[in-house]
């Protein structure tokens, strides 16, 4: 897509945002910008198309507690137990309520009402508190629904939580496991870790065989992860948390065989970006049975 056409579509999106009821039109344009073709929302076939359908028609405001970074803790505790929850230091309606002096040297700040509203503090002595407060106030001023038309976030109360910083053990980096579940059944895993200012990431099947895209991708080819000793337990946790949902990505951390809950994601990449693994886009999409409304 050329520059002028992309710019035109972005301007059109801004105009559509001025009035309510344009979620589908905006979503189609966002998809068009990313993929250079329109999604088929009347008869969805590909994974992204089905996720967009669910975003626009099914998983809406009444599912907000499952994406609220604070409220979801109640669901996790009921389903699998509070031992899987990261330690919570506090929840705040405003930045002025946060007492940075009482927080430990390492901690994480998260906005409860969207994705990407995170500040990771590895050394509090180096933290610019004034700048951090400005950033947090910006987070609180946002309604994440307005970014990708995910109505599931529309009524989530903007708050900040402080949580324990998940540390590595014996210089082994913390690995995040993102388990893609279809109708409550895990099908594949995306592993990711940050190491020496670089990111490693790769897909694996449930037997821990690496899944590579058809087109060579250096970051996937060079990335390697040891099979976690508690893989069976990770999959069991993901199964329980995704039970009853059409599609869900369950994000978990595992450090020293201790599993810690991360978050639940209903629309991976907001349903706008196709996977580099083509069979995820097509074959696995067939596993999603959309409801009749």
Properties at a glance:
29% helix; six-stranded antiparallel β-sheet; globular; 9 helices; D-amino Acid Aminotransferase, Chain A, domain 1; 293 residues; four-stranded antiparallel β-sheet; alpha+beta
How would you describe the overall organization of this protein?
This protein is an alpha+beta fold. Among the domains are: 86-164, no CATH class; 175-266, D-amino Acid Aminotransferase, Chain A, domain 1. Helices cover 29% and strands 22% of the residues. The protein contains nine helices and ten strands. It has helices at 3-16, 23-35, 47-57, 72-80, 129-140, 145-148, 218-222, 231-242, 278-281, and strands at 88-92, 107-111, 118-121, 160-164, 175-182, 185-195, 198-204, 210-211, 247-255, 258-265. It has a six-stranded antiparallel beta sheet. Strands 1-4-2-3 form a four-stranded antiparallel beta sheet, covered by helices on one side. A hairpin with a 2-residue loop joins strand 6 and strand 7. Helix 1 (3-16) packs antiparallel against helix 2. The longest helix is centred in the first third of the chain and has 14 residues, at 3-16. It starts with a helix and ends in a 12-residue tail after the last helix. The model has no long low-confidence stretch (mean pLDDT 95).
**Total beta-strand segments:** 10
What is the distance, rounded to the nearest whole angstrom, between the alpha carbons of the first and last residues?
35 Å
The chain-level mean pLDDT equals 95
| Topology as a string of helices (H) and strands (E) | HHHHEEEHHEEEEEHHEEH
Low-pLDDT segments, ≥5 res: none
* CATH fold-level name of the domain at 175-266: D-amino Acid Aminotransferase, Chain A, domain 1
Measured by DSSP, the beta-strand proportion falls in 15-25%
């Amino acid at each position: 897509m050329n520059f002028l056409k992309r710019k035109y579509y972005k301007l059109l999106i801004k105009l559509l945002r001025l009035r309510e009821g344009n979620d589908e039109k905006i979503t189609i344009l966002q998809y068009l910008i990313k993929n250079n073709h329109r999604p088929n929302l009347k008869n969805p076939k590909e994974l992204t198309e089905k996720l967009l359908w669910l975003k626009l028609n099914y998983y809406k405001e009444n599912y907000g507690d499952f994406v609220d970074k604070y409220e979801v803790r109640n669901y996790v505790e009921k389903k699998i137990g509070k031992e899987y929850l990261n330690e919570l230091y506090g929840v705040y309606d405003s930045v002025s309520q946060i007492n940075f002096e009482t927080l430990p040297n390492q901690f994480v700040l998260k906005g409860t009402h969207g994705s990407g509203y995170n500040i990771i503090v590895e050394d509090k002595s180096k933290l610019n508190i004034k700048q951090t407060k400005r950033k947090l106030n910006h987070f609180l001023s946002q309604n994440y629904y307005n970014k990708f038309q995910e109505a599931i976030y529309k009524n989530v109360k903007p708050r900040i939580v402080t949580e324990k910083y998940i540390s590595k053990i014996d210089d082994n980096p913390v690995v995040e496991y993102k388990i893609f579940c279809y109708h409550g059944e895990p099908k594949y895993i995306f592993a990711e870790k940050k190491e020496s200012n670089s990111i490693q990431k790769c897909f694996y099947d449930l037997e821990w065989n690496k899944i590579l895209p058809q087109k060579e991708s250096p970051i996937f080819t060079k990335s390697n992860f040891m099979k976690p000793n508690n893989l069976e337990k990770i999959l069991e946790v993901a199964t329980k948390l995704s039970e009853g949902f059409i599609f869900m990505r369950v994000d978990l951390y595992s450090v020293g065989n201790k599993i810690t809950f991360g978050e639940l994601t209903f629309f991976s990449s907001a349903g706008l970006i196709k996977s580099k693994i083509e069979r995820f886009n097509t074959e696995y999409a067939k596993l999603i049975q959309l409801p009749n409304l």
